[in-house]
Design a protein that fits this description.
alpha/beta; Rossmann fold; about 45% helix; about 15% strand; globular; binds NADP nicotinamide-adenine-dinucleotide phosphate
Length: about 300
């Protein structure tokens, strides 16, 4: 089996490449810079350099693949990058390229909030709308579309773990609001294995999976579990929370960035989305890693 991966140099993409290498699946990773190509290679993929998501060039990268895994997306509009150009335009290019290369199946990562677009204020922003438009493009394409709608994907190599460890060591962890909003973190290694299963599974298409871990958890409880795990692993684990009012964080995010995050990115944290993990267990044919196991593995991997 062979797959081609867009966004291969990213957090999820590298995990997919590592899982593919372990499973003996050949994987081409699209990379838009020399640095990205190096990351692809280090994760066990074969880099294919492309400056942009352009259909005809992508078709060459997809040649001979059994499935395309489309991960290259932006979660906020920075500089000159727009959702329309990168997320929607990129997905259209991937669809055209898959047709040209004769690849039937496309596995796409959307967002959990898409399921409640228009039903919850934090799921009703231009980011989720762009993901919804990508899903529609895929469903209408006639290709075998498999869509994963992730909650928070967690594991070594992500950005949250080093940030929280730094904050714990410095004496206070920042939390937006009361932290009652929930999330359902899934291990990046499980997400990667599910992608490989979805690339080959003989189920009815199009098919949509909510990509969630086994346990919904409020962000406040997540921080407590994280701090406790850090303590068990000999890191600073005393949790003192510094609460920032939601409206203040959102105002700063809208004005240019809160802790580097723009408003749509804060929505993904605050949107309070959870779902049923049972279909994922069925697809994987195994249990998903528990929240505490995932947290401990991610902390242990940090220097
Ligand atoms: N991580 C999560 O918790 C989470 C949650 C919900 C949904 N998702 C979805 O899961 C997918 C993967 O997420 P991730 O966490 O792996 O993201 P990531 O680490 O930010 O990686 C994004 C990837 O997309 C590429 N990319 C960005 N802009 C591009 C452009 N204009 N043209 C071509 N490539 C571009 C990046 O390439 P460079 O390396 O060259 O920058 C990188 O390979 C995304 O679709 C994301 O929306 C993730």
């Amino acid at each position: 089996m062979k797959i081609a991966v867009t966004g291969a140099s990213g957090f999820v993409g590298r995990a997919v490449l590592r899982a593919a290498a372990q499973a003996g699946i050949a994987a081409t990773g699209i990379a838009r810079s020399a640095e990205a190509a190096t990351r692809v290679q280090a994760a066990g993929g074969t880099p294919f350099r492309l400056d942009a998501l352009e259909a005809h060039a992508l078709a060459s990268a997809f040649a001979g693949a059994d499935a395309v895994v489309h991960l290259a997306q932006i979660g906020a509009e920075r500089h000159s990058q727009t959702y329309d150009a990168v997320n929607v335009g990129g997905t259209r290019a991937v669809i055209a390229a898959a047709r040209e290369a004769g690849v039937r199946r496309v596995v796409f990562f959307s967002g959990l909030g898409v399921a409640r677009y228009g039903m919850h204020p934090r799921c009703t922003n231009p980011y989720f709308l762009s993901k919804l438009r990508c899903e529609l493009e895929l469903f209408e394409s006639g290709l075998e579309a498999v869509v994963f709608r992730p909650s928070y994907i967690f594991g070594p190599g992500g950005e949250l773990v080093p940030l929280l460890l730094r904050e714990l060591a410095a004496g206070a962890v920042t939390r937006i609001g009361d932290g009652a909003y929930r999330m359902q973190p899934i291990a990046v290694a499980d997400a990667a294995r599910l992608v490989l299963s979805a690339a080959a599974a003989p189920f009815a298409v199009p098919h949509v999976f909510d990509l969630v871990g086994p346990e919904p958890v409020s962000y406040a409880a997540f921080l407590e579990r994280f701090a406790a795990a850090a303590g068990r692993l000999g890191r600073p684990g005393a949790l003192l929370v510094r609460e920032v009012p939601v409206e203040r964080a959102l105002a700063e995010a809208r004005a240019g960035g809160w802790g580097g995050l723009l408003a749509d990115e804060l929505d993904c944290l605050l949107c309070d989305e959870v779902a049923d993990a049972a279909p994922l267990r069925e697809l994987l044919g195994a249990e998903l890693a528990t929240l505490d196991a995932v947290i401990e593995a991610a902390i242990a991997a940090e220097p």
